[in-house]
Amino acid sequence: MAITKSQADYIDGIFENRRLENQIEMDRRRAEVYDAIPEIGELNDKAATLAADAARRSLSGDASAMEGLDKTLSDIAKQREALLLAGGYSADYLDDIYHCQICKDTGYVNGESCKCREEEISKMLYTNSQLSDILQKENFATFNFDYYSDDVIDEATNMSALENIKNVVASSKEFINDFDKDHSNLLFYGMAGTGKTFLINCITKELLDQSYSVIYLPAIQFFELMANHTFGRDNETAYNEVSSYDIMNCDLLVIDDLGTEVQNSFTDSCLFNCMNERLLHQKSTLISTNLSLEELFDTYNDRIFSRAIGEYKFFKIFGDDIRRKK
């Protein structure tokens, strides 16, 4: 998963704070118990002295230094537990405290990101996606095939709107399931109101739930943001925190409503460079547009579509205007 350095620092800070909070709580518990049951403090000091002495002797060449140490420390631990229970505490009251017993609050297991760290990344990505509220409403669990009719037929394929959307949804789920190894790209096209953005949100939620980084940008904001980065502008947008590095390196880049921007040589060049760069780095891109394929070819130069045709899976989404049905 591609997260920025600042995002990684933010996540690492969460785990550092957890370790600090746990250490503070452990210090408080020890002070409390040592004050109430001084014998436990004495036992802990004894255990520490025995362990340090054995280590010193072992380093000095005494082969028998560690003999019996484990049993002695185990006996001390049992005495400590008995004193804790007699004093009204749980037997593990002085054990190390961890939010996650698997990684011991380091965030990593054998050099790999722990599940708890992935969960924190997912939470962060949801917060930063500006879609968290929408995705609670628009996802595969709420996707409604009833909005697509068997009576609306596409002349080119002789397929109904309902049959078509079922195929598109199945392909979208395949895209998600193979996301980490296939690195494919999607382009949804069709008239406004047929559910393209809803389907994008379904895909986005599934990938965010798996802790992939997703950047969603309406086409107008995408090109405005790229112009800001290219020309060093300070124009304020809702997406100012998104860097050009993030756009090129996030796991999935979504450009919604391509064709709504003012089209010129800069937008052509910008779109080609972005698509090409992400293809080279095997980063997936999902584009939606209200334009037909013919209009796309007329609007954007051949260089863009000669690159796109072979590397993108095109899906036409058609049917009644869902907004009107709702």
Structural summary, described in words:
The structure is a single chain. By secondary structure, the protein is α/β, with parallel strands linked by helices. It has 14 helices and 9 strands. Strands 6-7-8-5-9 form a 5-stranded parallel β-sheet, with helices on both faces. A two-stranded antiparallel sheet has the order 1-2. Strands 3-4 form a two-stranded antiparallel ribbon. α11 links the parallel β7 and β8. α1 packs across α4 and α6 runs parallel beside α8. The longest helix has 32 residues. The protein is elongated and about 85 Å long. The model has no long low-confidence stretch (mean pLDDT 88).
Properties at a glance:
single chain, 326 residues, alpha/beta, 14 helices, elongated
Task: Present the secondary structure layout.
Elements: H1 5-36, H2 38-59, H3 69-86, E1 108-109, E2 112-113, H4 115-129, H5 132-137, E3 153-154, E4 159-160, H6 161-177, H7 179-182, E5 185-189, H8 196-209, E6 214-218, H9 219-231, H10 244-249, E7 252-258, H11 265-280, E8 284-289, H12 293-299, H13 302-311, E9 312-316, H14 322-325
Parallel strand pairs: 5-8, 5-9, 6-7, 7-8
Antiparallel strand pairs: 1-2, 3-4
Helix pairs in contact: 1-2, 1-4, 2-3, 6-8, 11-13
